[in-house]
Specification:
Number of helices: 3
Oligomer: single chain
Number of domains: 2
Number of strands: 15
Largest sheet: 6 strands, mixed
Strand order of the largest sheet: 3-2-1-6-5-4
CATH superfamily of the largest domain: duf1285 protein
Length: 180
Amino acid sequence: MPSLESLADALHKAHADETSLPPVERWSPALSGDLDMRIARDGRWFYQGSEITRAPLVKLFSSILKREDDDYFLVTPVEKWRIQVDDLPFVALAVERVDDALVFTTNVGGTVVANAEHPLTVETDMHTGEPHPRLRVRRNLDALVHRNVFYQLVEWAQEAAGRLQVRSQGVGFDLGALDD
């Protein structure tokens, strides 16, 4: 099993430009195996049971994250390692209104503007009946919208036909039905 440092070195060699995301959608190496890495529901990353506490390393690994069907992988041009994701790989920890946009900040320091390309959706958890809000971050990778952020969205929401809705960049996003 590779070390965290060897994975990080391979990524640096494959993608020297740190201002943009690596083109993981163009990389299709054969599966290298299962890596003992897990992303917890709260966005913390673990390797071999220990939390990865170095934020730059987490950010680096998150940049090579790829989802295929229900599986998640860390991908370089020559390696593809399956990892475990408890819920969603990112967490939206904050939101602010900037002009007509809702701008979210994720646990890895990225920002995402809710719009048609990055929709905000709310599903209902089948087991708890609680809302499970998510935001598309990139490609087919989503962020769980933290409970406090969701409450902020509800506070900003407007009623539309018995439902709560927020708008960002001209797109309406449904947060759920108003309670009777």
